[in-house]
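Thread title: Can someone regenerate the structure for this chain?

I was given the following input by a collaborator and told the matching structure tokens would be attached. They weren't. Posting the sequence so someone can regenerate them.
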Amino acid sequence: MSQLIVKPIGLPEQQDHGESIFPLIYGAEASGSSADIASWVAEHRGVLEDQLALHGAILFRGLGLVDDQDFDGFIRAFDWPNFTYAESLSNAVRRNRTELVFTANEAPPEVSIFLHHEMAQTPIFPSKLFFFCEQAAEIGGATPICRSDILLQRLQQQVPKFVADCAAKGVRYSQTMPAEEDMASGQGRSWPSTLSVENAKSIEGIEGAVSSESREQAEAKLKKLGYTWAWQADNSLFVTTPVLPALRELADGTTVFFNQLIAAFRGWKDARNTRGKSICFGDGSAISLDDMAVAIDIADELTFDIPWQSGDVALVDNFLAMHGRRPFEGQRKVLASLVS
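Best answer:
Regenerated them for you:
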């Protein structure tokens, strides 16, 4: 049995949503050893999973985690199935630290990453997310989180037709992926990496060009996923998803605003993509900017900014809560891991 003493604590900014608070926060009375932490998680894993499904996010503070190895050990104590970055369709550039742990997003510090459900713009997505603050930023760098069930309730009150269209039509996402990593973009992952093209080969003597074999591998993966695509003159790849749900019903009957609409309308802008033009309803019709303005305003009102301290861990239910990243100054090292 663990000797570590961990109890619920509070922050003034926590939100009260009736039966739940957002986020739930645990604090340790004293830092624990790796063995103590693993033992405590093993003892409480079932309770923590139930609490996560109720509250949407849990922040752990003061456990004494220092680096990626400590974080890796914390994750392994939950014994949940890993969702690897390499096999994902995430459009963010990341760097693996361990088998389970990678950097959250390599986009420049001045880039805002707006609220989204992880990989909701793809047919394959994780159920839960771990974040670990290895080093808090000097200024800024909070991780905003927002309850999607509460957001949807408010949307149903204010723009019911928009919600009905989301439910009936679904959405399609379009994006141009570069041939090589674009470190200036929050959506800069290359198509060879995103589509797991093995040994993508450049054509000798032609900068940025890729072989027909690499293209064929990419097209086979896209066809299997139900995407449409078009190759661009610079060897970037324009893709459009099949129709994906904009709402999701959870196991307990709760319906959530599960999509990447806010992120796409606010932040999908780089050298290849234009904000607001990367998404439409599943039937091809346009999504109202006025409706999206309402959704953005409500989400901003409902957002809780995780005030990172070095050593903090956040566990987020990817179906119940959206997340993002605030701009920052100075060094910020936040690591992540995904659960299938």
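The CA atoms of residues 124 and 264 lie 18 Å apart.
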